[in-house]
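Project outcomes to date are best conveyed with an example. Our students and postdoctoral researchers have been running inverse folding experiments weekly, and each run begins with a structure described purely in C-alpha cells. The record below, which covers 188 residues, was selected by the lab manager from last quarter's runs and is presented without edits.
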C-alpha cells in the first residue's frame, strides 16, 4: 500500500488459491487495484477492480461413479469492480485502516457502495464433453449504512440474475440482509 501523503491512497494486491474438496477443485489467480481519494475533509471514495483467472474441475474418475465422462476444465477470465463512499470524520486513508476503525468518535458517519462480480460470464457446461452445469453469471451487490453513537445499522442487497431466493412466500432474484451492530468499548 503506497503512501502518497496526499490523502489519496492506492492499494495493489496479488492473490492465488487452490481449493480441493473431494472430487471438486478450483484454482484462482487474481490481481487487484484500489484507489482512494478525498472529496472533502470528511468524504472519501474508493474505487477498485480485480482481474483474474479461474479454473474449476470435477474429477469423476476419483468418485467411483460410472458412465459419466470426466468434465473438461479450462482457465476462465474473472473480473470484479466496485466503488465505496465513506463520510468518516478524520478517517485517513487505506494505510490507516486499523487505526481509523478503532478510534471512537461521537460524530455520525455514513457509507455505501456497489460492486459487480463475475462481469465476464462463462458457462463451463458449454464446452464439449462437460456434463456439469457450471455458470459464472454476473452478480450485483449494494451496501449502505451508518454509525450513530454506538449503533451501526446496515443493509446489504444482492441481485443474482437467473437465481431465486425463497422466503416469506416470495421468490425473487433479489435478496436483502439487515443487521444492527452495537459497540461495547472496542468490540462489536
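After processing, the design step wrote out the following sequence:
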Amino acid at each position: 500500500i503506497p503512501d502518497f501523503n496526499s490523502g489519496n491512497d492506492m492499494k495493489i494486491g496479488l492473490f492465488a488459491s487452490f481449493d480441493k474438496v473431494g472430487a471438486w477443485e478450483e484454482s484462482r489467480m487474481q490481481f487487484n487495484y484500489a484507489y482512494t481519494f478525498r472529496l472533502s475533509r470528511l468524504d472519501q471514495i474508493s474505487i477498485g477492480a480485480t482481474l483474474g483467472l479461474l479454473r474449476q474441475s470435477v474429477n469423476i474418475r476419483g468418485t467411483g461413479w460410472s458412465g459419466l465422462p470426466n468434465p473438461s476444465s479450462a482457465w476462465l477470465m474473472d473480473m470484479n469492480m466496485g466503488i465505496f463512499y465513506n463520510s468518516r470524520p478524520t478517517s485517513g486513508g487505506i494505510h490507516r485502516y486499523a487505526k481509523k476503525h478503532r478510534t471512537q468518535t461521537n460524530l455520525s458517519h455514513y457509507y455505501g457502495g456497489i460492486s459487480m462480480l463475475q462481469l465476464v460470464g462463462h458457462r463451463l457446461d458449454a464446452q464439449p464433453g462437460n456434463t456439469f452445469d457450471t455458470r459464472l453469471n454476473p452478480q450485483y451487490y449494494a451496501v449502505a449504512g451508518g454509525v450513530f453513537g454506538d449503533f451501526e445499522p446496515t443493509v446489504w442487497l444482492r441481485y443474482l440474475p437467473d437465481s431465486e431466493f425463497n422466503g416469506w412466500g416470495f421468490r425473487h432474484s433479489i435478496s436483502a440482509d439487515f443487521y444492527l451492530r452495537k459497540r461495547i468499548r472496542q468490540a462489536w
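The CA atoms of residues 41 and 125 lie 51 Å apart. The two ends are 27 Å apart (CA to CA). The training component of this project remains on track.
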